[in-house]
Amino acid sequence: MATTQLSLQILRPLPAAGQTCGRQSYSFQSRNSAIRTRRNMKWVLRLSLVDQNQPQSQSTGVDVKQLVDFLYDDLPHLFDDQGIDRTAYDELVKFRDPITKHDSISGYLFNIALLKNLFRPQFFLHWVKQTGTYEITTRWTMVMKFMLFPWKPELVFTGTSIMGINPQTGKFNSHSDFWDSIENNNYFSLEGLWNVVKQLRIYKTPDLETPKYQILKRTANYEVRKYSPFIVVETNGDKLSGSSGFNDVTGYIFGKNSTMEKLPMTTPVFTQANDAGLSKVSIQVVLPLEKDLSSLPNPNQETVSIRKVEGGIAAVDKFSGKPDEAIVCQKEKALRSCLVEDGLKPKMGCLLARYNDPGRTWRFIMVWHCSKLF
Fold first, then answer.
1. Which pLDDT value is given to residue 26?
2. What is the C-alpha to C-alpha distance for residues 147 and 114, in angstroms, rounded to an integer?
3. CA neighbours within 13 Å on the CB side: how many for 39?
4. Distance CA 28, CA 295 (A)
5. What is the secondary structure of 32-99 as a DSSP string?
6. Does pLDDT of 11 surpass 80?
7. Average pLDDT, the chain
8. Does the CA dihedral 303-326-223-372 come out positive or negative?
9. Residue 273: in which H helix or E strand, if any?
10. How many other CB atoms are found less than 10 A from the CB of residue 347?
11. Which of 364, 347, 40 is nearest to 192 (CA)?
């Protein structure tokens, strides 16, 4: 089955308890969410104070700044052939995430090797900072494909890792992962296991080129993505769930342009509304990513235009089924409500992304396209 997305544009984050607003921080935590989290994880309070009261450890003999710099260099190798430097960890380092635990560096490295063989993981490190006298926190995204299933489902996890430092050895003696998508991060978390199982569902999107993005945060209700710029051909549509204008924009790709050049088909097909009533709609097809505005032919029709989308931050809700206008509007309201609750201020309008022909789509993703937050 294919997938569809809906996105909202965000003006700025609202003040939020537990939020760290560093240069590369992507922690969008609401006041209510912070209160719930504080009940289970006492370290949240320390995270919220890190910028105002940066802990100092010069007198302890442990160079924490050097360890921060080390993690920036070392963690990107978590799943590649080089691997992490095991000499930076105590032999009895304690590793915990919601569904896994190990009490030695050998067990920790075994877990990494198992993930490499089963999931082909990609690890993206967003930031590293000191959050206690003997504590460092990292924020990351991990994307994995489960290779044993024929449809190779993609699993996405984002979160933070709290890494404890042994003051006697200056090495890491603990590593605890906390996922953004669940509340109960204690081992063994049934909520965490169910979060994994849900991502193993059967789905399929066309094997076509699509705009590039990185997932910054995956919550229980939506994803926060950072999109790279891309170019679309667009014309007027009738409604978010409609297909009016589809033949005009695909006609441009199939050669109805000034040079009769045929361009490869891409995904998704976008319908976008920029007004509060979701009534002023355009329909768009993404053009091949290697193209730029100067290399593209002009449209033959005056009602068709080419435009560069600058990219930015988008909050995305995925859902299944053939959408009608009532479903799209319902999803839009639910996503907007979640963003506001989590301390974000979404802009007007939304963007519906469909990964099949608009007249035949049975599974789709709703995405709120967001402006840059930082």
1. 31
2. 12
3. 7
4. 39
5. HHHHHHHHH-THHHHHHTTTTS----GGGT--HHHHHHHHHHHGGGTTSSS---GGGEEEEEEEEETT
6. no
7. 84
8. positive
9. strand 269-273
10. 17
11. 40
> Given pLDDT bands bounded at 50, 70 and 90, which one contains residue 53?
very low
Share of the chain above pLDDT 90, in %: 69
Six-digit token pair at 345?
A: 């201020």
| Per-residue pLDDT band at 91 (split at 50, 70, 90) | very high
How do strand 172-179 and strand 154-165 relate by DSSP bridges? Answer: antiparallel
Chain segment 343-364, per-residue pLDDT in tens? 988 888 899 998 865 544 444 5
Q: Residue 315 CB: number of other CB atoms within 10 A?
A: 29
What pTM does this model have?
0.82
Q: How many residues does the chain have?
A: 374
Amino acid at the residue 189 = S
Asked if residues 235 and 283 have their Cβ atoms less than 8 Å apart, the reply is yes
Contact yes or no for 285/233 (Cβ under 8 A): yes
What residues contact residue 264 under an 8 Å CB cut-off, 6+ apart?
208, 209, 253, 288
Q: What torsion, rounded to 10 degrees, do the Cα atoms 327, 305, 287, 324 define?
A: 10
Q: How many helices (H) and strands (E) would you count in the chain?
A: 7, 18
Quote the pLDDT of residue 43: 35
For the CA atoms of 295, 299, 303, 308, the dihedral, rounded to the nearest 10 degrees, stands at -10
Long-range pairs, 106-112, Cβ under 8 A, ≥24: 108/175, 109/83, 112/78, 112/79, 112/83, 112/84
Q: DSSP states of 316-360 as a string? A: EEEEES---HHHHHHHHHHHHHHHHHTTEEEPS-EEEEESS-TTT
Amino acid at 210: T
Separation of alpha carbons 195 and 199, rounded Å: 7
